[in-house]
Every structure is written in structure tokens, then in C-alpha cells.
Design brief:
single chain, 479 residues, alpha+beta, six-stranded antiparallel β-sheet, globular
């Protein structure tokens, strides 16, 4: 029999509004008919709408990892609120009468089966795994254009450095913004984002000295990118295969969007991975001109902390699926891993949820970092890379989490080493102020997910708690 949880249904919704509307349909008893197949893998029914004829919707779980949703409504969201309402009605225990599978769904299932058979046949014949043909002539032209773009970017960066940040005015910021647009002609979308980030720093109304500090860091990152990007593109242009760099993030900086087939080709996959989400938040990235949904997940086998990143461009945000918090274990047949160092980005095409068990918490507590000295050493090595992620996240074990006489929260490991907890500027909200609401036992012998940031003005490395895990209780501080 099909088992559905509210958390899982929430994860299928395209956005928060769809969740609200779907729940509303279920709780207002808007479904005039609720039915299920004999095996329970198909839910279908009719929901009253604005017209005379009810909408016919269904949720097909014949392949549990890849549910198929159908509805006769005109909505462009997928799944629509009617399909979600059908699932919520089932999860809340409303009565579904048993009925034969509709003929149209049977026909669509048969077509899907034939497509899968063709895929398997192609895979067996080796057709599916044939490498995609690359137009090397066009790619070399692109590399040549990117090198020209890097020359343009270098001239701008050097002129800003020679002139000094104190001479930058609104006219200079406008000139930088014009260069942002020009970089699009040179296939340097990654550089566009970082240059726009610099323009935002220089044009902000915040403290001038503070913005200068971060502007200098951004100029340093751009200079490092130009140097490494030029060396990489020159070497790649001389490579007969024109191969991508699958070990570092340089291609992503250059604007390459990794395809799952490419990650698979380079062996950046893991089979039968189980992930437990420990933190999630969304934010507006003005430099990217996108909304970003960011989740941090623990690989229950390896103990690594991975990231899932969902970008929603402003212009298409309403039509794109919005990620959300997930409170179960995501069982993925194949996990795709992007190039990178700490907290590599991951993706999956299929996922089957299961409830979090006591064994999962036992695994979690065995994977946290017990030595703060070793953890900080790893973080510092990450921060030394100018093109690396500047907000590394780690799962640490705290023998004690308490308050000093000065009022600071401090984590202490088993050897007595301590780590001061503070809110970092890069996160959209603080979390340290929430720690007093946790009970004293919850702050003893616990696991804490923390995000690190190097504060440039003071030269200090600061850690902010994201989640506290004690026994089988997970307290997310970031939301």
C-alpha cells in the first residue's frame, strides 16, 4: 500500500503557494471523487473548480521514485494544486474508493513502458552511452572569444586598482555595469556574475570602509580568476580532446553549466546514496539576478556534507519549482557530484523518501568532526583557494555548548578546544540568539552544523550554528 507523508508531498510542490492551495482543496473537501487502484499505486479523482466540469487529476506511483502527475486544468505548474490536493487528501486519511485504472492512464503507461524499453535497448547496444559529438571548431572559437573577454576584464580590474577605490564614483560604477553586459558577448557568464557583485559592493549605501574591504577581496578573486582562467583556456585550446576540468570549479567560473551526462562521463556519480538534509534556506542573489534555494545534506555513508543548489532566474521564477526543507531520508539510485572541494554540489534525478530511523542518527553522530583543531585546519585550507566557496559548512561534535562570562556562546570539543559562535554577515538571518531557547541537555554531547566565514575587517574566522542535533532530535535554527 502506498505510504505518503506531508513532508514528502511538500517536497514535490513547485512553491509554497501550491502547498497552501493544495492543502486548502483537501481540507475544504473540494474533491467530488477520490479513487485509488487495486494495488494502491495510482490515486485519481475529480476536483471542483471554477467551471461546471470538475478537473480530473491523478498521481501515478507505478515507479515510486518517479511519480507522474496529470490534470485537466490549464495550470502551468507541475504538479498543480489539484494533484497536490489529491496527495494531501490521501495523507490525511480521507476515504479513497477502489476503482479500475482509467483506460487513458493505462494507454499512457504502455507508452512510457515502450520508451523505457527503447532506452534499455539503446543502452544495451551502446548507443545511449556514445559520447556526444563536439564541434571542436566552434569550441575553439568560443575559447578564443573567452580569452579576449578575460583580456577586457583584466584591463578593467587593473584600471580600478591603479586608480584606487577612493576615486570610484557613480560614473565608474556605471562603467563597470556596462562591462558586465559586454562580458556576455565573450561567453563569460560566470565572470559577469562576479563583476556585477563588485558593482553592487561599490554602489551600495553601506559603510564605505567596509565596502572597500570586501571590494578588495572581490578584485582579488577576479584577478585570480583571470590568471587561472587564462592558463586553463590556453591549455584546453591546445588539448586535442578539448576536455573539461572535472576536478576544479574553473569551468563553472567560466560559465559552463554541467550536464548530468558529463558528470557521469567523468565518473562523478555515486550509486544508492542516502542523504539527510540538515539545513535549508532561500535567498535573493542580486549578482546572479536569481533566487537561490540552498540545502545542506549529510551523506549517511561517507559523512560528507553536500549542497543542493536550485537557481530560479527572476524572469522565470514563477514558472520554476521552488525547493523547500525536507525532513526524511532521500534515497537516490544515482547521485551526481559536481567538481569542487568541500561541500560539493550534488543533484539527483530520482528520489524515494523514507522516514528517518534511529540507525540514521547513530550514523550521524559517528560522522561528526570531533577535533576542532582539525576542522579549522580544513576550513582554512579551503579559504586559501581564492576561487573556492567562502562559506564552508561542517558537522562538529560539541562536548559542551555554553555561555562565557562575557555572554558569548562557545562550543568545546572533547579535548577542551573551543570555538566561539557568532552570526556571520553572509547569512540572511542570525541564529545565535535562538540558542537560549534550547534546553541545557540539548547543548551537551551534541552535533552542530556550523557555517564558517572569514571576517575581513577583523581578520577572524567566525562560525555560525545552523542546526543542533541531540540524540534523535534535530533543531534547525536557520529557516
Amino acid at each position: 500500500m502506498l505510504e505518503l507523508t506531508t513532508s514528502y508531498i511538500d517536497s514535490l510542490a513547485p512553491n509554497a503557494a501550491a502547498i497552501k492551495n493544495g492543502l486548502g482543496l483537501a481540507r475544504k473537501k473540494s474533491f467530488v471523487q477520490l479513487q485509488r487502484s487495486e494495488g494502491g499505486e495510482l490515486l485519481f479523482g475529480q476536483c471542483s473548480g471554477s467551471g461546471k466540469t470538475p478537473y480530473v487529476c491523478s498521481a501515478d506511483f507505478i515507479v515510486p521514485e518517479k511519480p507522474v502527475f496529470r490534470c485537466t486544468c490549464p495550470s502551468r505548474q507541475f504538479p498543480c494544486k489539484h494533484a497536490l490536493g489529491l496527495l494531501y487528501a490521501y495523507a490525511e486519511g480521507q476515504t479513497f474508493t477502489e476503482a479500475p485504472v482509467p483506460e487513458d492512464i493505462t494507454a499512457k503507461r504502455e507508452k512510457a513502458e515502450k520508451r523505457e524499453e527503447n532506452k534499455e535497448k539503446q543502452a544495451a547496444e551502446g548507443k545511449e552511452n556514445k559520447p556526444k559529438k563536439v564541434n571542436k571548431s566552434a569550441l575553439k572559437k568560443k575559447i578564443s572569444a573567452q580569452l579576449e573577454g578575460l583580456d577586457l576584464l583584466e584591463k578593467l580590474v587593473l584600471s580600478l586598482i591603479r586608480g584606487g577605490l577612493s576615486t570610484i564614483d557613480s560614473k565608474t560604477v556605471k562603467s563597470i555595469q556596462e562591462n558586465v553586459k559586454q562580458l556576455g558577448n565573450y561567453y563569460l557568464s560566470g565572470a559577469q556574475i562576479e563583476l556585477r557583485r563588485l558593482a553592487l559592493l561599490l554602489g551600495s549605501n553601506q559603510d564605505r570602509e567596509e565596502s572597500y574591504t570586501y571590494a578588495v577581496e572581490q578584485l582579488t578573486r577576479l584577478h585570480a580568476f583571470i590568471k587561472k582562467g587564462r592558463a586553463y583556456l590556453t591549455a584546453r585550446g591546445e588539448d586535442p580532446e578539448l576536455a573539461l576540468d572535472h576536478e576544479s570549479t574553473i569551468d563553472e567560473w567560466l560559465g559552463h553549466a554541467w550536464q548530468l551526462s558529463e558528470l557521469k562521463e567523468y565518473g562523478l556519480t555515486k550509486e544508492a546514496a542516502e542523504l539527510l538534509q540538515l539545513a535549508f534556506y532561500s535567498f535573493d542573489d542580486l549578482a546572479r539576478q536569481e533566487y537561490v534555494d540552498l540545502g545542506y545534506w549529510l551523506d549517511l555513508e561517507s559523512g560528507e556534507i553536500h549542497r543542493t543548489v536550485n537557481y530560479r532566474p527572476y524572469k522565470a521564477a514563477k514558472l520554476m519549482r521552488e525547493e523547500d526543507s525536507f525532513f526524511e531520508v532521500a534515497c537516490t539510485p544515482v547521485l551526481y557530484k559536481y567538481p569542487g572541494d568541500m561541500n560539493v554540489r550534488v543533484r539527483y534525478e530520482e528520489m524515494k523518501p523514507r522516514p528517518v530511523a534511529a540507525e540514521d542518527f547513530a550514523l550521524l553522530s559517528s560522522k561528526d568532526q570531533r577535533s576542532f583543531t582539525e576542522a579549522i585546519k580544513k576550513v582554512k585550507n579551503q579559504l586559501k583557494n581564492p576561487l573556492g566557496d567562502k562559506l564552508p559548512v561542517m558537522l562538529l561534535h560539541a562536548a559542551d555548548l555554553g555561555v562565557t562570562e562575557s555572554g558569548q556562546y562557545v562550543m568545546t570539543d572533547e579535548s577542551g578546544s573551543s570555538l566561539v559562535l557568532e552570526d556571520i554577515p553572509s547569512l540572511p538571518q542570525g541564529t545565535v540568539s535562538l540558542l537560549p531557547f534550547l534546553s541545557a541537555p540539548a547543548l551537551q554531547d551534541c552535533s552542530v552544523l556550523v557555517m564558517f566565514e572569514h571576517i575581513l575587517d577583523s581578520g577572524r574566522l567566525v562560525a555560525q550554528p545552523l542546526t543542533v542535533i541531540k540524540d534523535e532530535t534535530v533543531t534547525r535554527l536557520l529557516y
